[in-house]
Amino acid sequence: MGTHSNKRFSTINLYVNRGSRSVVNNLSFQIEIGTLVGVLGANGAGKSTLLSVLAGECSVNSGSVCINGVSLSTLTALEQAQLRAVLPQHSSLSFNLSVIEIVTMGAYSYPEAQPQLLNRWVVESLHDTDLSHLTDVNYTELSGGQQQRVHLARVLVQSRAIAHFHGHAWILLDEPTSSLDPRHQQLLFQKIHALTRAENFGVMVVMHDLNLAALWCDRLMLMKEGALIFDDCPANTLTSNNLLECFDNPMHVFPHPIYSDKVCVVAHK
Ligand SMILES: Nc1ncnc2c1ncn2[C@@H]1O[C@H](COP(=O)(O)OP(=O)(O)OP(=O)(O)O)[C@@H](O)[C@H]1O
Ligand SMILES: [Mg+2]
Predict the structure, then answer these.
(1) What's the pLDDT band for 241 if we cut at 50, 70, 90?
(2) Which residue range(s) make up the domain with 216?
(3) Residue 215 is inside which H or E element, if any?
(4) In angstroms, how far apart are the furthest CA atoms of the chain?
(5) CATH of the domain at 219
(6) Which atom of ligand 1 is nearest the CA belonging to 208?
(7) Total structural domains in the chain?
(8) Within-domain flag for 31
(9) Which site among 10, 17, 36, 225 is 20 to 30 Å from 198 CA-CA?
(10) Of ligand 1's atoms, which has the minimum distance to the CA of residue 46?
């Protein structure tokens, strides 16, 4: 286990091209354990590309990515899977597997995990994602939102395994609530927020819902055309001017009616 000062996920001067186009442009940042960092930006801004790079699934043109002080390029796929869990934007799966079988697969990178421990992680993660009543249902028979929750539960099992063996875990989530109803969106962010503190998670979450971001994230990164244009706490990032620059769409920002330290964002008709 690294020292506390090594618990960082960071990039320095990161550039990524896809085809002949520059998709990630000179990105430098670091994430700390115990924080929930949101990534916002228009379609095509490069958010998923950035997450794929951090997940070791997309190669870099120049710059570096370091996880706990170690260059990502020196780690095998298994070593990366023992440090971070990833929820891609699209998880397709056509296998004939039950919910509990897929969720249990989350611990694949730690085959040495004791069965009782693995069972506890699975039960907790199914509960966190409100799937306890669907454990034996076939994945292909679930609704789109239920399927998304299965993948989230699988990522939570992996995250719990990593945190158990490593003391902390990095989590990369690409639009985890895009198919969820309002109650499950709220439930998911409540859980992630609580686990980030309780289980020593460091989370980067790509999202489009500005009000969920305002309510739950400790910090927000705004991307535009591959560049990081703002990186600060939600109250500082979510201003009308910044949102106009980022999304090219006029929006109003108000103090939150219930939480004085939060803001909420309202669009025009
Ligand atoms: N496999 C690929 N090959 C070529 N270009 C790609 C590929 N994947 C993405 N791109 C391009 O890279 C740019 C960034 O895409 P990316 O998926 O990172 O955007 P995003 O910010 O996640 O958008 P969204 O909000 O729509 O998910 C886009 O212009 C896209 O066309
Ligand atoms: Mg994307």
Answers:
(1) very high
(2) 4-95+168-267
(3) helix 210-216
(4) 55
(5) 3.40.50.300
(6) 25
(7) 1
(8) yes
(9) 10
(10) 18
Number of the ligand 1 atom closest to the C-alpha atom of 223 = 21
Tell whether 103 is covered by a domain.
no
Rounded distance between C-alpha atoms, residue 118 and residue 160, angstroms: 9
- 47 CA to centre of ligand 1 in angstroms: 8
Tokens of 9: 């996920």
CA of 240 to the centre of ligand 1 (A): 26
Q: Residues lining ligand 1, CB < 6 A?
A: 18-19, 23, 41, 43-49, 89
Sign of the dihedral defined by the CA atoms of residues 13, 176, 93, 133, in that order = positive
Residue 93 has pLDDT above 80, yes or no: no
Residue 173 has pLDDT above 70, yes or no: yes
**pLDDT-based confidence at residue 268 (cuts at 50, 70, 90):** confident
In this structure, is the dihedral angle defined by the CA atoms of residues 169, 82, 107 and 221, taken in order, positive or negative?
Answer: positive
Which residues are paired to 40 by β-bridges?
222
Residue 158 is assigned to a structural domain of this protein: no
pTM of the predicted protein model: 0.96
Q: Does residue 144 belong to any structural domain of this protein?
A: no
| Residue 89, φ and ψ in degrees, nearest 5 | -65, -40
Residue the block writes with tokens 């597997």 = 97
Neighbour-count burial for 205-240, b at 16+ CB within 10 Å, e otherwise: bbbebbebbbbbbbbbbbbbebebebbeebeebbbe
Q: Whose CA is nearest to atom 16 of ligand 1?
A: 46
Q: Is 227 helix (H, G, I), strand (E, B) or coil?
A: strand
Task: Determine contact, residues 149/130, Cβ cutoff 8 Å.
Answer: yes
